[in-house]
Amino acid sequence: MDVTGLKRRGLMYVLSSPSGAGKTTITRALLKQNTDLDMSISATTRQRRAGEVQAQDYYFVDTAEFNDMVDNGEMLEHAKVFGNYYGTPRNAVEQALSEGRDVIFDIDWQGTQQLGEMVREDLVTVFILPPSARELEQRLRNRSKDTLETEAQIQERMSKSKDEITHYSEYDYVLINHDIETAIEQAQMILDAERLKRRRRTGMSDFVRGLQEGL
After folding, report:
1. For domain 3-40+101-214, which CATH number applies: 3.40.50.1820, 3.40.50.720, 3.40.50.300, 3.40.50.410?
2. Which residues of the chain fall below pLDDT 70?
3. Which one of 14, 59, 62, 124 is at 20 to 30 Å from 172 when CA atoms are compared?
4. Where are the beta strands (DSSP E) in 46-172?
């Protein structure tokens, strides 16, 4: 039997971190390195920022439409963050998984908990920590030059980070982002290993049976 014919169910690869710890940079790098990895596009009620594209960066919806999606069971998870609602539409994710494609998520601990309650066998979770509080604050200040966030908004993010990092123990893996290239490499290693887990190789029984018949 041809090894390339082995089937695999896709996995849901969650990256969470406080703002500024590096998950967006790591996510983009993994998407570039893996052609069979899709980005989960969230629905949100927040206003679209300059340069953002509908159905590419987010699905921008109003609060009534968002609530309807939740009530109709169309969300895998949802949460309120900084006054806006965010959630993961179900259909696109389930379609990708059934086709053997992996889906990467940039969501917080609340969303991760909800996914864990619904689809634990498909889920791989990674929490990314900064090397220090000082480094995290510096990254937020550097980023604020582009996002035009105020001092009050920076302090709000720092305060929220104190709560977010307490949830690190709920994740399968923890990365400390001392160096972004190293963190990207480690995140890729986790993804590669999880793809090889026996329970995800849905065609393995047929493959082994073919080996037995050939012996």
Report:
1. 3.40.50.300
2. 1-5, 143-149
3. 59
4. 59-60, 75-81, 84-89, 102-106, 123-129
